[in-house]
Amino acid sequence: MNLFTRKVKAEGNCYSVKSEIEKLILEKDEIISSLGYSTNSIDEHFGKMIDIAIDKFYSVAEIKAGYKIADFEKPEGAKDNILLEGHVFNVGKIVYSQLKKSEKAVIFVCTIGDKMEKWAKKELQNDAAFGFIIDTVASAAAEKAADMFHNFISDEMEKDDLNITNRYSPGYCNWSVAEQHKLFSILPANFCGISLNESALMNPIKSVSGIIGVGKEVTWNDYLCDTCLMKECIYRKKKQTELNKKEVTDDR
Amino acid sequence: MSELLDKIEYCIERGKVDKVSPYPPDLRGQDGSDELTKIALESGMNPADILESCNKGMLKIGEKFSRNEVFVPELLMAAKAMKAVMAHLKPYFQTGSVKAKGKFVIGTVAGDLHDIGKNLVSMVAEGSGWEVHDLGVDVKPVKFLDTIKNNPDCIVGLSALLTTTMENMAKTVQEIKKQYPGIRILVGGAPLTKDAAEKMGADGYAHDPQSAVEFLAKFNKAS
Predict the structure, then answer these.
(1) How far is B50 from chain A (nearest CA, A)?
(2) What is the pTM of this model?
(3) Contacts B71 to A, Cβ<8 Å
(4) Which of A35, A244, A29 is nearest to B71 (CA)?
(5) Mind listing the domains of chain B with CATH numbers?
(6) Distance between CA B157 and CA A31 in Å, rounded?
(7) In this complex, is the C-beta atom of A252 within 8 Å of any C-beta atom belonging to chain B?
């Protein structure tokens, strides 16, 4: 059951994707874990804050996602850069190694809107712990929406017997966040209501953008944390959370 | 009298703000740091002793945080309890009968609009007795330089979340060190590592609010 239900042709080779928010299930245990606690160790006071933030998410979030399919090319002698719609992206060795066998690339954006981040900012002034928890819930929701969008693309491509790669975003895996500007220049202006500032920061902040490689020879791989220097990366934390969860299940 | 100070210290450690605060559940209905500070001042206690008790409470919760016994929400509740005390102590800071540990100037570097990490460090530093000058986000080097000019005895904290703004952080460190070589600079943020901080010429790298206040204390001792 996916949050994203069907694609709708937007301009050019772009599609927006319809969503049904109730299909995005935010697990309280996952939020608890991302805050650092185990399920039984969190105080009831903070547990209630998580419940309130999750409840409100469903009434205020405005989930939007969209994508464009582009031909995937490699500049001559490429080792760490790719060519999409006339733009050379210096994606770095890690991302290049995962994308190099692609035939097409899905350039995408996905957002939960700006209501949660505005609420978090307001609460940080009054009750910082609550503001922090709202922000954590919003980040988890944006990542989950991006996961479900990824699954939607996987299903779409499977119809043509094509595989997909992991998604890669500027700012991660040694790919400079400044390349967001090139990525956004390929998409229609203000696509899905997301804009970019001079510093390559997306507005709304709780948005995810990136590239997914598509082709017969590409594969999805586990995170490549061993080769990356970003120790506080959200994907490293996510991987650790998944490993912890697996260990608990294995112990049972 | 010392029993009252112990209670204040405990309220800070546990994040008990006031009587109506439901947190922590086991102290529900009891006076918090707000009421206890008021009582202590009315009974003639030395404001400096009250501040000292608060710092002890913050140190205890900070140590628990470092040992992963508590997490950011508890740390923020302690900072909130501390804020309630500081509201009562403010007049004593103004008259000079109570002194802050030092001045801490903090900001997110130019080109970066992320503020949650910076705000967490600000709150915990303030709660630990520092006079915090928060310059906000997207702070150009010139703003840091102007603030240092007016506060030559400060310690500077720089925050960045984006990999690209790390370059701006390095430039800011260099510009500050060029004009004010004696100013201590602490850096922090998700894309940073201890090595990167050293390379850019910073004096310290803090990976969380508690390590930031530990650095501030260390710098303070050294100066």
Answers:
(1) 23
(2) 0.86
(3) 35-37
(4) A35
(5) 2-95 (1.10.1240.10), 103-222 (3.40.50.280)
(6) 29
(7) no
